[in-house]
Write a structure and sequence with these properties.
seven-stranded parallel beta sheet, 19 helices, globular, 13 strands, 469 residues, binds uridine-5'-diphosphate, six-stranded parallel beta sheet, alpha/beta
């Protein structure tokens, strides 16, 4: 009798329970499954429920016999829209609730490899002694990762915590960013007033990366090569797999045509019909992602700026974008005319399809990493208004390094919104379109057969398969 064939490698995947994190780790999962790996994906009850109601990714994944969701109960399910809430979740509630479950799965489920969200540093403790190698996947850019990684050094050099309030002061102790990084470009928790202990604890999370078996990043070499070479020196066996942009990679391998359907909110697709009525590159798409919240005053400033810019605009106003927004009276009366003439508002958009649309000429974005990559792949110039976390370094790179748009962080004034939108869509339109086009080409090449991200994904899959040998 032939011996029983060895079972396929079994990978446990554990994202931080937040839309951007779940979304990109689902994409990673979809890239790994066709290689015959078995995957268990940990997900909160609320996200699992939303995925099965609103998306096609749930059924796509479930069609693989080697795939299963494992639902985690008892997680905090409120908003995570401040550094305080995020920090508490990372260092307190998540480790408490999930560590026993992780140990049980790692010991009893014949896991070959554990791919944990690198923001969940405690995953290393949960896996200790189980013999299962842990790879960290970071959902952020390499530049933001490197800024987080260097924070303990900035504490040692006295750059942090800040003395004084001048946010324009240069930070010269982050290698590779000496020429352009300012205090205001550091991850937002550096200025959030966290207690000293919490600040130290959160600062040390990224420093745990060298203890993992490898690091996987959703980026590509042509975009972040110089920063990657700094990170590489601190990674075990210099082992970084840059396999992004993930959504473009899925398309390039014909695994999924549109991955925006991974989103955890109900999409309003009527905006595509509205875009169809507009001239090429004439519309400003506005979205602040799934977490950011605005005050009512900020909303009104943006609104005036958009209407005064006289560009048609498609704006995602999530149900919870502004806490005190009353539905009856949503459009401020003085802006009704301009909004009716040029604006289209939705609660949630099919963002990837919107950015692909020929009518979209620029993206006013909070520079969450997924949104930034989606804009880069489609060659859409950006107006940046980062809200928190990694978005601060991302937007600095958009303007100062990649030259893909302008950064208006820390201002929210109708005149500035109008001016910067006009700058990107009129005055310097050609310049930004040209650099966006160039970067989009490089992004697409990286995930095409023979490109750097394409080869790195193949290498990652082979390395995981070797783990069973
Ligand atoms: N997104 C979407 N429709 C919207 C707004 C956002 O599908 O109306 C998707 C977007 O395509 C991206 C994700 O939500 O993939 C947002 O992730 P990002 O990292 O940009 O920001 P976060 O939500 O984590 O702040």
């Amino acid at each position: 009798m032939d011996p029983k064939p060895p079972s396929p490698p079994h990978v446990l995947i554990f994202p931080c329970p937040a839309q951007g994190h779940v979304n990109s780790m689902l994409k990673l999962t979809e890239l790994l499954l066709p290689a015959g790996l078995h995957i268990t994906f940990l997900i909160s009850a609320k996200d699992h429920d939303r995925l099965s109601r609103f998306t096609t990714v749930h059924s796509r994944l479930s069609s693989y016999p080697g795939f299963r969701f494992h639902v985690i109960h008892g997680l905090y399910e409120g908003p995570i829209d401040t550094d305080e809430k995020l920090s508490l979740m990372l260092i307190d509630s998540l480790p408490k609730v999930t560590t026993p479950l992780l140990r049980m799965l790692l010991l009893d489920s014949q896991v070959t490899c554990f791919i944990a969200d690198g923001i969940l540093g405690f995953s290393l403790d949960a896996a200790a002694g189980t013999g299962v190698p842990v790879m960290f996947f970071r959902t952020i850019s390499a530049c933001a990762f490197w800024a987080y990684f260097c924070i303990p050094d900035l504490i040692n050099s006295g750059d942090l915590p800040f003395q004084g309030t001048n946010l324009d002061e240069r930070i010269v102790n982050v290698k590779g960013m000496e020429g352009f990084l300012r205090r205001r470009d550091l991850p937002s928790f550096c200025r959030s007033g966290l207690s000293n202990t919490t600040f130290q604890e959160v600062s040390s999370i990224t420093r745990r990366t060298p203890d993992a078996h490898a690091l996987i990043l959703n980026t590509f070499e042509d975009l972040e090569g110089p920063i990657l070479s700094h990170i590489q020196k601190h990674c075990p066996n210099n082992n970084i797999y840059t396999i992004g942009p993930l959504h473009a990679h899925l398309k390039a391998r014909s695994i999924s045509k549109s991955t925006s359907s991974n989103s955890l909110f109900q999409e309003d697709r009527t905006c595509i019909g509205w875009l169809d009525q507009h001239a090429p590159k004439s519309v400003l798409y506005v979205s602040f992602g799934s977490i950011a919240t605005l005050t009512r005053d900020q909303l009104i400033e943006f609104w005036h700026g958009l209407v005064n810019s006289e560009k048609p605009f498609l704006w995602v106003i999530r149900e919870d974008l502004v806490s005190s927004l009353d539905d009856e009276n949503k459009v401020p009366s003085e802006l009704e005319k301009g909004t009716k003439e040029r604006g289209y508002l939705v609660g949630w958009a099919p963002q990837e399809d919107v950015l692909t649309h020929s009518a979209v000429g620029a993206f006013l974005t909070h520079n969450g990493w997924n949104s930034t990559l989606e804009s880069i792949v489609e060659g859409v110039p950006m107006v940046s208004w980062p809200f928190f976390a990694d978005q601060q370094p991302n937007s600095r790179f958009v303007e100062a390094v990649w030259k893909l748009g302008l950064d208006m962080k820390d201002t929210c004034d109708r005149r500035i919104v109008e001016k910067i939108v006009k700058e990107v869509m009129e005055v310097r339109k050609e310049e930004f379109e040209e650099s966006a086009r160039r970067m989009a080409k490089l992004a697409k090449e990286s995930v095409s057969s023979g490109g750097s991200s394409y080869r790195n994904l193949d290498r990652l899959i082979e390395d995981i398969k070797m783990m069973t040998a």
